Each structure stands twice: as C-alpha cells, then as structure tokens.
Amino acid sequence: MASRVLSLRIDADLFDRIREHAARRGMSAQDYVVRTLVRDDFDERFTAAVEETARFYGPPAAPAAPPGGAPAPGAVPGRERAASPRSPGRTSVIDGPDQ
C-alpha cells in the first residue's frame, strides 16, 4: 500500500492529550492519530452504507398484528393453545413462563 506524508500544525495542549492517549495504549502519537483517522473513516463509510441500504429497502415496516387477532374471550394470560402432537386436530394447553 502506498503511503503519503501529512504534516499539520496543532495546538500544544491537543498534542499533549494525543500523546497521553497514545501512551496509555502503548503507541506512538503518530500511530494513534492514524488509527483514529482509520476508525473514523470506517465509521463514516459504514454509516453511508447503512443509509444507502435504508434508501434501497425503504422505511421499516410496522410491526405485524399477532396471529389470530385479539385473544379469545375468557383466555388466560400466559396459557396458549397448541396443536396436540399425539392427536392431530386436537389442542392442548401450554403453560407460559409464569406457571
């Protein structure tokens, strides 16, 4: 990968903070700045990709209504009816997590 030289002038207090952050990570100030720029570049490219995907697929759909609509009158919360594996066409009561 080709490399280029970037020279910049920054405030002394900012440079001291950069050196402190780099030292905590066992890095040189230059490596810390490069790593920070690479991470920021990745974040921008990732955000752009997410936004492009959202534009392609459109806004998220509204949550679907529960199957079967509203609960039956007299239904007990936490208990559901399911097809019985032993007798097709018959139902059995399944206890919910609170039972």
In words, what does this structure look like?
It is a single chain. The chain starts with 11 loop residues before the first helix and ends with a strand. It is mainly alpha-helical and 99 residues long. It has a domain at 12-57. The protein has 2 helices and 2 strands; from the N terminus they run ααββ. The model has no long low-confidence stretch (mean pLDDT 80). It has helices at residues 12-24, 29-57, and strands at residues 79-83, 91-95. It has a two-stranded antiparallel sheet. A hairpin with a 7-residue loop joins β1 (79-83) and β2 (91-95). α1 (12-24) crosses α2.
SSE layout and pairings?
Elements: H1 12-24, H2 29-57, E1 79-83, E2 91-95
Antiparallel strand pairs: 1-2
Total count of helical runs of at least 4 residues: 2
Structural class: mainly alpha
* Gyration radius over CA: 29 Å
The rough form would be described as elongated
**Strand order in space, largest sheet:** 1-2
Q: What share of the residues lie within helices?
A: 40-55%
The biggest sheet amounts to:
2 strands, antiparallel
Total count of strands = 2
Which regions contain 5 or more consecutive residues with pLDDT less than 50? none
* End-to-end C-alpha gap: 62 Å
Mean pLDDT across residues: 80
- Into which percentage range does the β-strand content fall? 5-15%
